[in-house]
Amino acid sequence: xxxxxxxxxxxLDIEAVALRPNDFFTWTSGIKSPIYCDNRITMSxxxxxxxxxxxxxxxIKDKFPExxxxxxxxxxxxxxxxxxxxVLDLPMIYVRDSAKKHGKTNQIEGRLLEGQKVxxxxxxxxxxxxxxxxxxxLEEAGAIVLGxxxxxxxxxxxxxxxxxxxxxxxxxxxxxxxLIEEAVASDYIKQEDVxxxxxxxxxx
Length: 204
Ligand SMILES: O=P(O)(O)OC[C@H]1O[C@H](OP(=O)(O)OP(=O)(O)O)[C@H](O)[C@@H]1O
Ligand SMILES: O=C(O)c1cc(=O)[nH]c(=O)[nH]1
Prior knowledge:
Blueprint: H1 3-13, E1 17-19, E2 25-26, E3 32-33, E4 35-37, H2 46-63, E5 69-73, H3 78-88, E6 92-95, E7 108-109, E8 117-125, H4 129-140, E9 144-153, H5 157-165, E10 170-175, H6 176-185, H7 191-202
Helix pairs in contact: 1-6, 2-3
The protein binds 1-O-pyrophosphono-5-O-phosphono-alpha-D-ribofuranose (PRP) and orotic acid.
1-O-pyrophosphono-5-O-phosphono-alpha-D-ribofuranose (PRP) binds next to strand 8 and helix 4.
């Protein structure tokens, strides 16, 4: 089984994926969705989180070999960034959604030096705006952002456009299409649900 299908299967098996066709979830962007993928659940499964860290590390070695620092996005990207930085033996930082209101008033925590080459670790990409906000904060702090690596993406057209507009490269371990394929193969959903789920995503 290819890694994309394997990770999708793990997300389904640990019930990280929830479907609520009659009571939509609200995403961070405000989008109302019949599906929510809670990748935070992967923290509770050491074998799966190790597979994610190994997968992300391979992507980084392949696509961003000059990386010097791994940056986690607050909050869900932080634990994965920690595990990836351990695999790659690299420094880690994390980036808050906004600057702290007290203490050192940092948005970026950890040591970031001017001109360092950074890869951002995110758990999930919907519109991509959270990742791109982190990329902007890092660039404003003097970093060179090589790209973003995430576990999952809904592959929304608006996310692809936003990453392209900001010239930020991104890679994910799996995505919505693989998740749906795997959900049908594993009998989590029926063929009739597939059309509805794809139509909903394609119309966003
Ligand atoms: O691509 P986007 O449309 O920006 O959405 C994806 C973001 O939403 C979730 O974070 P959330 O805001 O729920 O915060 P958390 O990481 O603290 O749980 C997720 O962890 C991503 O960071
Ligand atoms: O866009 C979001 O906020 C979002 C969607 C999703 O499926 N899972 C998640 O953690 N956040």
